[in-house]
C-alpha cells in the first residue's frame, strides 16, 4: 500500500482534532492517542436515548453519554486512569430511578451543576482521569436531529416521512435521505472554533453517518471553520454500512457527505479494504472532494465491525509523518 504523507514541519507532536460521537469517535481517539498527546475531541450533542436522553429531558442539559465515552477513550494508561475509565462506563443496575444510568453521566452532570459551564465540568473530569487530550461539545445547546426518511411505512414505500430524534433516526426501518438540526442555527462552542482554526489535522468519522458525523457539518459556524481551516482533513469511513446507511456503498457515504456539506474539501479518505474492495467509484468520489484514497486492513481480528486501534494508528502516523 502506498500512502501519501501529509506531514508538516513539527518541532513537537502534531495537534489533532477529532469529530464524531459514540463508538465511532471512541475508535478514532483510541487510535489517535497512540500518535499524539495533543488531542481534542469534538462531540455531537443530539443524543436523546437511554441514560443521556433521560438526563437531558429532566435537567435540560447537554446529553453527556457521547462526551463520557470520549473522555474514557482519552484516559491515562496507568492504573488510576484505567480504573476511572471503567467507573465512568459502568452502569447502575435495578429498576429504580438510577437503573441504566452510566456513573460517568451522573458525574459529568453533577460537575455541570457545580460549575454552571459544560466545558469547565468536562475539563475537571479530564483532569481526574489524567486524560491525554480535551473533550468539547460541538454546540452550546442540546440539538435535535430531524431526518427525511423514505419507506418508514411499508405500505407506502415511496413516501417521505419526517423522523425526529437521534434514537428514532438510528433505528428507523426506512432509508434516511437527509438530516437537519433543530434549532437550525445552533451556536458552536467558541472553544471548538478556536481549536479548528489552530489544529494541524482534522479527523471526521468513523461513526453513524447521519447522527454522529454529518451533524458537525450542520452547525453553521463550525461548518465554516472546517471549510476554511488550514489543517489537513481526513475522513475515516466505517468498516461496513451501519444501521442508518444499511445497503449504502462506500462511495455513497461520500456522496451523502458532499450533499450536506458541498463546500467541504478533504485531503485523505481512509477506508478498510473489505468495504472499498468492490466499489469501483470510490477513488473518483474521493478525488472529487480533493482527497487521496487510502485503503488498508483496519478491522479487528475477531470479525466484529470495529476498527483495530493499532492498525488505524499506523495509518494516522504514516499520513502525519509521526
UniProtKB/TrEMBL annotation:
One Pfam assignment: CofD
Tell me a GO cellular component.
cytoplasm
Q: Which InterPro entries match?
A: CofD, CofD-like_dom_sf, Gluconeogen_factor
Where is it localised?
A: Cytoplasm
The answer, when asked if Lipid biosynthesis is one of the entry's keywords, is: no
- GO terms classed as biological process: regulation of cell shape
Mind listing the GO molecular function terms for this protein?
LPPG:FO 2-phospho-L-lactate transferase activity
Superkingdom to which the source organism belongs: Bacteria
User: What are the UniProt keywords, alphabetically?
Assistant: Cytoplasm
Statement: the UniProt record of this protein carries the keyword Cytoplasm: yes
Q: Member of which family?
A: Belongs to the gluconeogenesis factor family.
> What's this chain's function?
Required for morphogenesis under gluconeogenic growth conditions.
**Protein name in UniProt:** Putative gluconeogenesis factor
Q: What organism is recorded for this protein?
A: Enemella dayhoffiae
